[in-house]
Amino acid sequence: MSITLTGTLTDQDQLTLRTAAWGAVSLMSAASAAGSAHRAGTEGAIALTSATGPVGHVLAKAPKGVKWGRSVAELADQVLPALTASMALLKRQAPDEAGNFRDTVTVAVEAAARLHEGEPSPTVAAMAAKIAAALDA
């Protein structure tokens, strides 16, 4: 386990990272067609648990105790700011891991969107763009 990142980040900081990454997968799952929502979530989760480096250690488990809300709008209200906060936090406290976090979330979003199997639906593409914008804010 990376002492550098987990030693640098508080439990709350790590929860923010987990909420952001796992929440992004949840948003992609919610944006997917009814028949593929479970598959989108599974593919995204596999990507997160396959992450390496210090970020991989933090994202290896889903956040506990997070209430995701009752609608996609409530979920987005929580997750999109957490993505932006996570990037700012990592740039400030673990700059070498900011790119790793962004890349990991991007791979998870792409896996959930199944971009390699053709064009995503407009809904899925729009959600992926919102997640990318939050990461880059």
Largest sheet: none
- What helical percentage do the residues reach? over 70%
Order of helices and strands: HHHHHHH
Point out poorly predicted stretches.
none
Structural class by helix and strand composition:
mainly alpha
Question: Could you say how many structural domains there are in total?
Answer: 1
Separation of termini? 29 Å
Radius of gyration: 14 Å
Counting H and I runs of at least 4 residues, what is the number of helices? 7
Q: Could you tell me the number of beta strands?
A: 0
* Mean pLDDT rating: 88
Please state roughly what percent of the residues sit in beta strands, choosing from under 5%, 5-15%, 15-25%, 25-35%, 35-45% or over 45%.
Answer: under 5%
Shape: globular
Please tell me about this protein's structure:
- The protein has 137 residues and is mainly α.
- The protein has one domain.
- Helices cover 75% and strands 0% of the residues.
- The chain is built from seven helices and no strands.
- Helix 2 runs antiparallel to helix 3 and helix 4 packs across helix 6.
- The chain starts with a helix and ends with a helix.
